[in-house]
Design a protein that fits this description.
- Helix content is 31%, strand content 25%.
- The protein has 338 residues and is an alpha/beta fold.
- The strands form three sheets. Strands 3, 4, 5, 6, 7, 14 and 15 form a seven-stranded mixed beta sheet that branches. The protein has a six-stranded parallel beta sheet with strand order 10-9-8-11-12-13, with helices on both faces.
- Helix 3 packs across helix 4 and helix 3 crosses helix 10.
- It starts with a strand and ends with a strand.
Length: 338
C-alpha cells in the first residue's frame, strides 16, 4: 500500500509517498481500499510538530477516508464486501488502505462522491457537534463563523442555514461572493475590518448567539465580546499560532500569552458560555459520534449538507496540498486521492 508519510517535522517538502506492507483486518474489522482522504489543518500542525496528539515521526496522519471495503475480518458479514463507505480514522487515514471497526465504516449515500465522502467526517462532525449537539442552535439566532470559506466554516454555514439562523462570516474579500451564495448575510473581511465592531453594528449592538473560532489567541477574546446575552463561544483551533513552515516556540508562546482566561464568575455575570472542542479527543465517545454521523448522512440525502470540494490532489502532490491550505487558498475542503 501507499502512504503519505511525515518522516520529520518541517515544511511541506518533507512529505514522502512511501510503499508499506498491505494490512489485514482482524475480527470485527474491515479494510478499505481508500479512494480519497481528507486533509485538515491538524495534519499541517502535525507536520510542523505542533499537534500534541500526534505520535512522533515518522508518522502517517489523516482522520478521515472514503473508499470500498475490499476485505473483511472474522465475524463480518460478507455482504459488506464492495460497499462504498466513509470512516473516521485515528491517524493513518492518508493511506491507500485503512482498517476500521465494522460499525465505523458508514455506507455512503447514493450520489456521494469519494471526494465528498473523504472530506465530510471531520468538518461536518465538528460543525454539527458545536452548533447542534452542544450549541442547541435555534431559528432566528445569530451565528458568527470564522474562516467561513474553510471546510468547517462551510459545513457550519450549511447547518446554520438549515436551522434558520442569521449568519456572519469572516473571510478574505475574494471569498465573499461565494459565501453570500451559500447564505451568509454579513461577510466580514478579517484582513481589513474589525469583526467585533462589524458584528455589533450589523446586529444593532446585540451581538451573536454563537461564535465559532478556530483562530485562537486574541481572537477568542474578541469573539467572546462579540457575543450577546446567552451567547456561546466555541474554541476549536489555534491557526494563528502557526504562521511559518516550521514549529515556532516563540510564536506559540505569543499565542498563549494572548489567549484569554475565562473566569466562571465572569461567565455567570455575562450569561455566556465557552466551549472547547477537539474531535480528536472524542474517540471514546464512539456512539455519540456515530449518531451524529448518521444524522449527517440523512441531511446529505435531504440536500441540506453537501461538502464543497476545493481541490483533490493526487497523493503524490501532498506537499502542494499542504501549501495550498497554509496559503489560505482553499474555498472548501482539500482531499488527497489514491
Amino acid at each position: 500500500m501507499r502512504q503519505v508519510q511525515i518522516p520529520k517535522h518541517g515544511p511541506p517538502e518533507v512529505l514522502r509517498l512511501i510503499e508499506a506492507p498491505d494490512i489485514e483486518p482482524g475480527p470485527g474489522e474491515v479494510r478499505l481500499a481508500v479512494k480519497a482522504a481528507g486533509l485538515n489543518f491538524a495534519d499541517v500542525l502535525a507536520r510542523k510538530g505542533m499537534y500534541r496528539d500526534a505520535p512522533p515521526p515518522p508518522l502517517v496522519v489523516g482522520y478521515e477516508a472514503a473508499g470500498v471495503i475490499d476485505k473483511a475480518g472474522e465475524g463480518v458479514s460478507p455482504s459488506r464486501l464492495g460497499q462504498r463507505v466513509l470512516a473516521m480514522t485515528r491517524f493513518r487515514g492518508q493511506s491507500s488502505q485503512v482498517i476500521v471497526a465494522e460499525d465505523a465504516a458508514v455506507p455512503m449515500p447514493q450520489g456521494m462522491t469519494f471526494e465528498e465522502g473523504g472530506g465530510l467526517p471531520v468538518a461536518y462532525l465538528t460543525a454539527y457537534h458545536m452548533l447542534i449537539y452542544l450549541g442547541n442552535l435555534h431559528p432566528g439566532e445569530r451565528v458568527l463563523v470564522h474562516s467561513a470559506g474553510g471546510g468547517v466554516g462551510i459545513a457550519a454555514i450549511q447547518l446554520a442555514r438549515w436551522r434558520g439562523a442569521e449568519i456572519f462570516g469572516t473571510a478574505s474579500k475574494g471569498k465573499h461572493e461565494r459565501l453570500r451564495e451559500l447564505g451568509v448575510e454579513h461577510c466580514i473581511d478579517y484582513r481589513t475590518e474589525n469583526f467585533e465592531a462589524a458584528v455589533k453594528k450589523a446586529s444593532g449592538g446585540r451581538g451573536v448567539h454563537i461564535a465559532l473560532d478556530p483562530v485562537g489567541g486574541d481572537s477568542f477574546r474578541r469573539s467572546y465580546r462579540a457575543l450577546g446575552k446567552n451567547g456561546r463561544l466555541f474554541c476549536f483551533g489555534i491557526s494563528s499560532f502557526s504562521k511559518s513552515d516550521r514549529r515556532s516556540l516563540l510564536g506559540a508562546a505569543k499565542g498563549i500569552v494572548r489567549t484569554p482566561f475565562f473566569h466562571p464568575l465572569g461567565l455567570m455575570l455575562d450569561n455566556k458560555a465557552v466551549f472547547g472542542v477537539n474531535l480528536g479527543q472524542l474517540w471514546d465517545e464512539a456512539e455519540v459520534m456515530r449518531g451524529q454521523l448518521t444524522a449527517l448522512m440523512d441531511l446529505y440525502r435531504e440536500g441540506v449538507v453537501k461538502p464543497v470540494i476545493d481541490r483533490a490532489f493526487p497523493a503524490e502532490e501532498a506537499a502542494a496540498a499542504h501549501r495550498h491550505i497554509e496559503d489560505r487558498g482553499n474555498f472548501g475542503k482539500v482531499v488527497l486521492t489514491f
